[in-house]
């Protein structure tokens, strides 16, 4: 089944469940295994540099190995790896971060590969306690790891999970906490939202999860494509990609659209796309960055508290200190790695980059001075210095006298004194103050009280904020449902320079980086569909094509429904303009300069297709009926419409004479 047949609008149900008729793929024999170290160990080892990641797209084959490779540190630096306690997670932990949640689920699947059910939050409309991508692993004994809600939906999810495990049939469950039945399904939560949850049977660690963890080990972003479809094999996670270009694809998944367009787009935008669905099926593209990395210099009591709190939130913590009496796994059992070495020596071996968060907590002036000298010029994500403002200013003044030119960027990057003003002075209170600022910085928030926040709380669920904080997505709808009665044959299949007109139009939108490209077919759909084979487009059929172009526009927008609010603009184009090109489309996009909400092609004194409409016009476009086309909307918003001169698009093919004119010398 092509992806084009799967992409349409989401049905609105209070609580529905849709069984799928194929179980998720079993764990592959080529998936690799990580065994935890039996106990903490002090390790000395020579430098063994890793091979750099490939620069081009390469298919990923998981390498067989049994034990994680520890970070390489040059002598005399010693690396202490804490004991791994994650293989015995609590059966009912408090909701952790998504990354920690996934790591805890993985540890459980490794320790116990018996059949279980994995629940994933794949769609949210309105408000929700958790963001998309939240997961819960349910075991037949009633224990579970992770959460989907604040506790109001888990009981019903467990009932459904038991049925999924019994039948080996995945399903989508939907809950509407905005409806009157919220008193039943949401226990009166009043969340005012609708969520979709994908439930699938699972046994052991599947290959896609091994791929994601391997990417995280390399400190790479990853993206995962999950299909939630009935009557389709495979289902569940079918493709994944890392930022280095490495990729994994389920051996039975043949559609290249996810690997070639959706996953690279998710990695580029660094955002997840909520499930785009129609009735009982859909798909979900998820962005999965590695756990944030925090390096702490100093192993005092406040570092202990900060390490504990940070690891509870899913941060990967590395601690550096030269005092073996303080830096040990007894004091820091949850740390990712401990470097027993003088701070300046350890700096040479630490993989600090633009995504690294660093806090200096040595409490020793003579240690902080050289550390700050070395770290200030680095483009770190965050650099904090513990101590009073007077102490921080003295260190900076000394560095300036030594000849370090402290730029405005360095000042902006340095948080000194580190932390938010929460009050208190105990190690635990200091740690909370620091972690609060770290979390705000990592989430690009200003740490204001939520009651002062004007935008939705969750960035990846916020409709308004997604338009403000991320580049607007650009979609295209190619209208090709007409019967071509005046021409006497399907114009969509006419060859111009050896290529069918329908293919030329779709390729122009693809070259202009529209995503997705939706092709609306109607008459002659069975004849036209094969011409689009191999193109990464979504094909939808308009059963009411004979009623006019308005029905095709609404059909195209129905295919975007469920994700339509994440698009900044949509191109409407027809297939019978043989000179349509990516250049023409880009000129239309450039005309949307902030003052105009429509960019249309000039046809005499009026505007027409191709035309691009911004999101403010989506409600009207979705309600067009019959022969109503986009011209009516353009005419009604003349002051907001930019007319673009594209003389090459004056010719469209409606009659044999038009076709003869195109091919005349």
UniProtKB/TrEMBL annotation:
Annotated MobA-like NTP transferase domain residues: 476-638
Bias kind Low complexity: ranges: 82-91
Source taxon at top rank: Bacteria
Chain ranges of the XdhC- CoxI domain: 110-175
Signal sequence interval, chain numbering: none
Residue stretches making up the XdhC Rossmann domain: 294-438
Source species taxonomy: Bacteria, Pseudomonadati, Verrucomicrobiota, Opitutia, Opitutales
Chain positions covered by the region annotation Disordered: 1-32, 48-99
Organism: Nibricoccus aquaticus
Pfam families referenced in this protein's UniProt entry, alphabetically: NTP_transf_3, XdhC_C, XdhC_CoxI
A molecular function (GO) term: nucleotidyltransferase activity
Biased amino acid composition, Pro residues: 49-73
Name this polypeptide is given: Xanthine dehydrogenase
PANTHER family, per the entry: ALDEHYDE OXIDOREDUCTASE MOLYBDENUM COFACTOR ASSEMBLY PROTEIN, MOLYBDENUM COFACTOR INSERTION CHAPERONE PAOD
Family annotation (InterPro entries): MobA-like_NTP_Trfase, MoCofactor_Util/Proc, Nucleotide-diphossugar_trans, XdhC_CoxI, XdhC_Rossmann_dom
SUPFAM superfamilies listed in its UniProt record: Nucleotide-diphospho-sugar transferases
């Amino acid at each position: 089944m092509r992806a084009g047949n799967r992409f349409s609008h989401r049905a609105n149900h209070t609580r529905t469940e849709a069984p799928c008729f194929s179980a998720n793929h079993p764990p592959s024999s080529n998936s690799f295994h990580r065994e935890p170290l039996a106990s903490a160990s002090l390790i000395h080892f020579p430098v063994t540099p890793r091979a750099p990641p490939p620069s081009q797209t390469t298919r990923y084959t998981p390498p067989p190995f049994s034990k994680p490779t520890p970070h390489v540190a040059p002598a005399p630096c010693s690396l202490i790896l804490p004991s791994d306690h994650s293989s015995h997670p609590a059966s009912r932990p408090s909701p952790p971060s998504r990354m920690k949640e996934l790591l805890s689920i993985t540890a459980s699947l490794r320790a116990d590969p018996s059949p279980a059910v994995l629940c994933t939050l794949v769609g949210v409309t309105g408000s929700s306690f958790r963001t998309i991508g939240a997961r819960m692993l349910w075991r037949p004994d009633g224990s579970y790891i992770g959460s989907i809600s604040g506790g109001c939906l888990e009981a019903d999810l467990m009932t459904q999970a038991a049925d999924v495990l019994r039948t080996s049939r995945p399903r989508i469950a939907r809950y509407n906490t905005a409806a009157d039945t919220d008193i039943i399904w949401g226990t009166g939560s009043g969340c005012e939202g609708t969520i979709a949850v994908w439930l699938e049977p699972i046994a052991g660690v599947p290959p896609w999860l091994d791929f994601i963890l391997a990417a995280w080990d390399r400190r790479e972003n990853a993206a995962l494509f999950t299909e939630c479809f009935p009557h389709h094999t495979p289902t569940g996670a079918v493709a994944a990609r890392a930022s280095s270009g490495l990729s994994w694809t389920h051996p039975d998944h043949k559609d290249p659209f996810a690997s070639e367009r959706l996953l690279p787009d998710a990695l580029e935008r660094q955002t997840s796309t909520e499930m785009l669905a129609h009735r009982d099926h859909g798909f979900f593209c998820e962005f999965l960055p590695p756990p944030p990395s925090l390096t702490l210099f100093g192993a005092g009591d406040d570092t202990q508290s900060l390490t504990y709190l940070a690891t509870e939130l899913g941060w990967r913590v590395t601690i550096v200190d030269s005092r073996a009496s303080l830096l040990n796994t007894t004091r820091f059992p949850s740390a990712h790695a401990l470097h027993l070495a003088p701070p300046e020596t350890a700096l040479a071996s630490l993989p600090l980059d633009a995504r690294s968060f660093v806090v200096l907590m040595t409490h020793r002036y003579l240690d902080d001075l050289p550390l700050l000298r070395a770290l200030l010029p680095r483009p770190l994500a965050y650099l904090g210095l513990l101590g009073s403002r007077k102490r921080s200013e003295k260190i900076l003044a000394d560095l300036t006298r030594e000849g370090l030119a402290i730029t405005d960027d360095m000042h902006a990057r340095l948080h000194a004194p580190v932390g938010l003003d929460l009050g208190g002075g105990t190690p635990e209170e200091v740690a909370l103050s620091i972690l609060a600022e770290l979390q705000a910085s990592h989430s690009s928030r200003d740490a204001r009280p939520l009651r002062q926040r004007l935008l939705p709380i969750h960035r990846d669920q916020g409709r308004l904020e997604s338009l403000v904080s991320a580049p607007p997505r650009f979609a295209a709808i190619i209208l090709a449902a007409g019967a071509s009665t005046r021409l006497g044959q399907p114009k969509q299949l006419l060859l111009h320079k050896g290529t069918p007109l329908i293919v030329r139009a779709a390729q122009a939108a693809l070259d202009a980086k529209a995503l997705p490209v939706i092709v609306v077919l109607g008459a002659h759909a069975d004849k036209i569909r094969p011409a689009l084979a191999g193109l990464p487009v979504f094909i939808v059929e308009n059963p009411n094509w004979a009623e006019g172009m308005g029905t095709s526009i609404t059909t195209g927008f129905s295919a975007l429904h469920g994700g339509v609010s994440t698009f900044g603009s949509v191109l409407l184009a027809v297939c019978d303009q043989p000179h349509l090109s990516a250049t023409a489309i880009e000129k239309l996009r450039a005309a949307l300069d902030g003052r105009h909400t429509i960019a249309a092609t000039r046809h005499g004194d009026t505007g027409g297709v191709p035309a691009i409409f911004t999101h403010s016009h989506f409600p009207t476009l979705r309600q067009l009926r019959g022969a109503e086309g986009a011209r009516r909307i353009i005419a009604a918003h003349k002051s907001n419409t930019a007319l673009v001169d594209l003389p090459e698009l004056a010719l469209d093919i409606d009659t044999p004479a038009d076709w003869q004119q195109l091919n005349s010398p």
